[in-house]
Write a structure and sequence with these properties.
It is built from 8 helices and 18 strands. It is an alpha+beta fold and 390 residues long. The chain folds into 4 domains: 76 residues, Monooxygenase (Up-down Bundle), CATH 1.20.1280; 95 residues, no CATH class; 48 residues, no CATH class; 136 residues, Lipocalin (Beta Barrel), CATH 2.40.128. The radius of gyration is 25 Å and the shape is globular. Keywords: Ubl conjugation pathway.
C-alpha cells in the first residue's frame, strides 16, 4: 500500500482508468493522496469516452469531465443509443445522443412517401436533457406550445446501458386530441406538413384520410401516460460478406401506409423482417416477411425451384402485369430471387395470415418483394445513417 501511495500520479492515473466510477468514488475517500489523483480530469475523460463515447465538453456549461460524468452521464448516459417507442400499432424508432451540450432524443421518421425511399430519415426532437446552473433539466420539445418540463425514469442498467426507460410529460393535456379547436387545427396542419409534406389531406381518398387521422390521434394521445422505451439492438454485419442481403434497419414501402422501418435479420437459411414501425393491419413488433433461402427460383419460375442462379448473372426485372408499386429507375436488373411468405391482416391485426411472396435481390442493401395475394410490389432499402450501422 505504501509503495502504491508513493507511485507517480501518471502511473496511478493509468491504473485508476480501469476502475468503474463507483470504485473511484470509494477510493477517493480512503486518503488525501488518492482523492487528489481521482480528481485528475483525464480519468473522467477516459470514463466518458469508454462508457458513453462522449469525448468533448463542447456546448456543456461545465468545466470538467468529472462534472459531466457526475451530473449528467452517471444518471442519463445509460439511455444513449437506439430505442423503440411503443405507440399502439405504429411504434417509433428513437435515437438518443449527445449534441451541442445536451442529451437529445429524436424520432427517426421515414421519408415522406414511397417515391422518396432513397431519402435520409427525418429526425424530429422528442425531449432533451440539459444543464442549468449545474442542475439537470429535462424538457419536452414537441407540439405547438412552448417547451415544458418532463421526467425521465430509468428502469435498470447493465454495463452502463439501460434496458428500458420512461418519459413523462408534465403537460400531457397540451398534446392530447380534444374537440375541434383552432389550435388543434393548426397543430394538425403542422403535423401533416412534417409527416407528409402536405398540410391538406382533404384532397386525398377517404381511406387515406382515415389512416392519417387515426395515426395522428394515436401519436398524440400517448402523452397521457408514460412513454415507454425498449432498447433496440442492430444485428452486426461482421462476417456477412457473403450474405445475400445485409442485416440492419431497412426502409420499406407499404402502399397507402407509406414507408415503414423494418429490422432485417439474416438467420442462417432465412431472411426475417420485423416491423419497427407498423400500421393498423400489421403492427409494430410483428414479423412482416420470412424468406427461405433454401428455395431459390430460376428465371421465369414463380412457385418453386431447386437450382441456384449464378451469383454474378443479372436478370432483367419487370413488374408483372396486374401488380402495382413504385420501382426506382436505377433498378433494372436483379441477381437472385427466393420464395417466401408475408404477413397480411385486417384492420386491428384481425385474422392475420401468411401469403406467398417472392423476394428479388438487386443489391446486398436493396431488395423488393412481390406480394402475390395483394398483387403489390414493395421496395426495401437499407438505411445509410452512420448511427444505424453496426
Amino acid at each position: 500500500m505504501e509503495k502504491l501511495l508513493c507511485a507517480p500520479s501518471e502511473l496511478l492515473v493509468k491504473i485508476f482508468e480501469f476502475l468503474p466510477a463507483s470504485d473511484l468514488a470509494s477510493l477517493a475517500k480512503t486518503c488525501r493522496r488518492f482523492r487528489d489523483v481521482v480528481a485528475i480530469d483525464q480519468i473522467w475523460h477516459d470514463l466518458c469516452q469508454k462508457n458513453y463515447k462522449v469525448s468533448s465538453l463542447d456546448g456543456w456549461p461545465l468545466t470538467s469531465y468529472k462534472e459531466l460524468y457526475a451530473i449528467v452521464l452517471h444518471r442519463y448516459g445509460c439511455i444513449l443509443g437506439l430505442w423503440k417507442l411503443e405507440v399502439l400499432y405504429y411504434g417509433a424508432l428513437i435515437y438518443v445522443h449527445v449534441q451541442n451540450g445536451k442529451i437529445i432524443a429524436e424520432n427517426c421518421c421515414p421519408p415522406f412517401d414511397c417515391s422518396h425511399l432513397a431519402d435520409p430519415l427525418r429526425l424530429k426532437p422528442l425531449f432533451e436533457i440539459s444543464i442549468e446552473n449545474k442542475t439537470v433539466k429535462t424538457t419536452c420539445v414537441t407540439g405547438l406550445h412552448t417547451h415544458h418540463d418532463g421526467i425521465v425514469k430509468v428502469n435498470s442498467t447493465k454495463r452502463c446501458q439501460a434496458e428500458g426507460f420512461t418519459f413523462l410529460c408534465s403537460k400531457a393535456d397540451w398534446h392530447n386530441i380534444k374537440p375541434v379547436q383552432s389550435q388543434n387545427i393548426g397543430y394538425l396542419q403542422q403535423w401533416l406538413v412534417e409527416e407528409y409534406n402536405d398540410g391538406n389531406i382533404f384532397s386525398t381518398s377517404p381511406h387515406l384520410i382515415h389512416l392519417i387521422l387515426s395515426r395522428y390521434a394515436a401519436m398524440h394521445n400517448i402523452y397521457s401516460s408514460n412513454l415507454r422505451f425498449n432498447r433496440l439492438s442492430i444485428p452486426s454485419t461482421v462476417g456477412h460478406n457473403d450474405s445475400i442481403v445485409l442485416p440492419g434497419i431497412y426502409k420499406g414501402t407499404y402502399s397507402s401506409h407509406g414507408i415503414e422501418l423494418i429490422m432485417v435479420c439474416d438467420c442462417k437459411d432465412r431472411i426475417l423482417g420485423t416491423k419497427i414501425t407498423g400500421d393498423p393491419n400489421v403492427p409494430s413488433g410483428e414479423i412482416t416477411f420470412d424468406v427461405d433461402l433454401t428455395y431459390p427460383l430460376e428465371e421465369g419460375e414463380e412457385d418453386n425451384g431447386s437450382s441456384v442462379p449464378s451469383n454474378n448473372k443479372k436478370h432483367p426485372f419487370h413488374l408483372p402485369t396486374g401488380y402495382f408499386g413504385e420501382i426506382p429507375t436505377h433498378l433494372k436488373y436483379y441477381v437472385r430471387k427466393f420464395k417466401g411468405v408475408g404477413r397480411i391482416a385486417n384492420t386491428g391485426f384481425v385474422s392475420p395470415q401468411w401469403t406467398n411472396n417472392i423476394l428479388y435481390v438487386f443489391e446486398k442493401n436493396e431488395f423488393g418483394i412481390l406480394w402475390t395475394e395483394l398483387r403489390a410490389f414493395a421496395m426495401f432499402r437499407r438505411t445509410e445513417e452512420e448511427f444505424l450501422q453496426n
